[in-house]
Amino acid sequence: MNQYLDDEDIKYLTIAKESAIGQITKRNNKQLSHLFRLIGEGIELLTTSHITFPRPDADELLAIRHGKYTYDELMEKLGEDVDANFKSIEDKIILPHNPNRKEADKLCQKLVKQRLGYA
Fold first, then answer.
1. CA distance linking residue 64 with residue 74, whole number of Å
2. Residue among 91, 36, 96, 86 at smallest CA distance from 61
3. CB atoms near residue 75 (< 10 Å)
4. Which residue from 48, 52, 71, 109 puts its CA 20 to 30 A from 99's CA?
């Protein structure tokens, strides 16, 4: 037994430590689910020029968020999915390589004018 802590203190610290580890895991799972969502949305945007809501892979994203997969499983899946998906979509990308800056500028000006009540 620790000379400075009684059994109740040790029990409290153990619960606090387990809670902190759980919070870190939940936070990591949430961030990883966002990562997978953003990759999926990016691939969809590049190949279709739109993003589907609700996400067609929502069940898998929730499973990631709720800790169904280990970190190592997700990293392996991430490596496989990203490499395979980006190689397979390379010639399916429909967005232009460069933006139309004049059109973007006109749209920006129009939106600012609308917001300020000039349009």
1. 8
2. 36
3. 12
4. 52
Cα(62)–Cα(57) distance, integer angstroms: 9
Listed in sequence order, the DSSP H helices in the chain are 7-48, 58-65, 71-89, 101-116
CB-CB contact of 90 with 44 (8 Å):
no
* Predicted local distance difference test score (pLDDT) of residue 47: 83
Q: What is the largest CA-CA distance in the chain?
A: 75
pLDDT in tens, 77-117: 877 766 677 777 777 777 777 889 999 999 999 999 999 98
Residue 45 has pLDDT above 80, yes or no: yes
What mean pLDDT do residues 32-47 have?
A: 86
Print the SS3 string covering 34-57. Answer: HHHHHHHHHHHHHHHCCCCCCCCC
Stretch 34-45: mean pLDDT: 87
Residue 88 tokens read as: 């397979």
Q: How many residues does the chain have?
A: 119
